[in-house]
């Protein structure tokens, strides 16, 4: 094959496809980072010495560069550890008390966790538990509160107390050992706390956090409990998108006259002379 000729300021390079001129030995050589600017140059560059000192010399600045980068990396890792936020070690609001009915269980989803909220009339406290029966994982929020104040599963009637213990299994033989006392029959319970007329929960069922409210409480807002200064109305509505989209929408008043036209009582749209 006729060799390709390239006309540039450099001498012509010939590529012979039949007999490659780059052997494996040449490819495995350690690359040389020195810059040679003498190839067909009319004069020597005055920056040649500077580039040679950076890449080829064994001066102290070259040796300090890796250590400097490592020091920066170590500082960044330490800062990330300090700024690390544990999402499952915080209090989260579930629902205002005004929206909760003590006569039935409520199903809620917070932090991706399916919860059942119900009123324990024995201890007169709100309870927050996993919304899954320990028997066949049926949603306990679809169950009922029985006459003894226990949370009863709608599927097979298993009954649970506010501590998560199973108290009664209708299908269990009466003359046999009480299988309902097994730990495998229990339902996980989350720490809960009422503040500002809002029910909060801690998303960790470990017994270490059973009394977490004694060490850390939800953020308290005094104005929410001051009923003498103003009147308040609570409204809860579930919407099928994230809070970021909602906040971005609420912070954009210029859309109201158009997106809510005919829906809300708004002023007339001013049409400029153009």
TrEMBL record:
Residues 91-201 form the Rieske domain. Gene3D superfamilies: Naphthalene 1,2-dioxygenase Alpha Subunit, Chain A, domain 1, Rieske [2Fe-2S] iron-sulphur domain. GO terms for molecular function: 2 iron, 2 sulfur cluster binding; metal ion binding; oxidoreductase activity. PROSITE patterns: RIESKE (PS51296). Keywords: 2Fe-2S, Iron, Iron-sulfur, Membrane, Metal-binding, Oxidoreductase, Transit peptide, Transmembrane, Transmembrane helix. GO terms for cellular component: cytoplasm; membrane. It is found in: Membrane. InterPro entries: Cholesterol_7-desaturase, Rieske_2Fe-2S, Rieske_2Fe-2S_sf. It holds the Pfam family Rieske. This is Rieske domain-containing protein. It comes from Solanum verrucosum. The lineage of its organism: Eukaryota, Viridiplantae, Streptophyta, Embryophyta, Tracheophyta.
């Amino acid at each position: 094959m006729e060799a390709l000729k390239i006309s540039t300021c450099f001498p012509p390079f010939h590529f012979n496809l039949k007999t490659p001129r780059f052997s494996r030995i040449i490819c495995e050589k350690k690359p040389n980072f020195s810059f040679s600017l003498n190839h067909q140059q009319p004069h020597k560059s005055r920056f040649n010495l500077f580039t040679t000192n950076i890449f080829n010399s064994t001066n102290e600045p070259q040796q300090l560069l890796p250590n400097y980068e490592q020091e920066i990396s170590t500082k960044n890792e330490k800062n990330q550890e300090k700024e690390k936020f544990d999402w499952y070690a915080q209090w989260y609001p579930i629902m205002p008390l005004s929206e909760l009915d003590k006569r039935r269980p409520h199903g809620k989803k917070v932090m991706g966790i399916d919860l059942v909220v119900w009123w324990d009339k024995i201890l007169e406290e709100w309870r927050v538990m996993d919304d899954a029966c320990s028997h066949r994982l049926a949603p306990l929020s679809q169950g009922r509160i029985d006459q003894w104040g226990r949370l009863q599963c709608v599927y097979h009637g298993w009954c649970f107390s506010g501590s998560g213990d199973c108290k009664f299994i209708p299908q269990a033989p009466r003359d046999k050992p009480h299988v309902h006392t097994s730990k495998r029959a229990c339902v996980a319970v989350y720490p809960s706390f009422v503040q500002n007329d809002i029910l909060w929960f801690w998303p960790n069922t470990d017994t270490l956090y059973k009394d977490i409210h004694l060490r850390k409480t939800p953020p308290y807002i005094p104005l929410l409990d001051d009923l003498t200064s103003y009147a308040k109305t609570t409204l809860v509505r579930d919407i099928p998108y994230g809070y970021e989209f909602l906040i971005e929408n609420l912070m954009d008043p210029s859309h109201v006259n158009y997106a809510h036209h005919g829906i809300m009582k708004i002023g007339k749209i001013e049409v400029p002379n153009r």
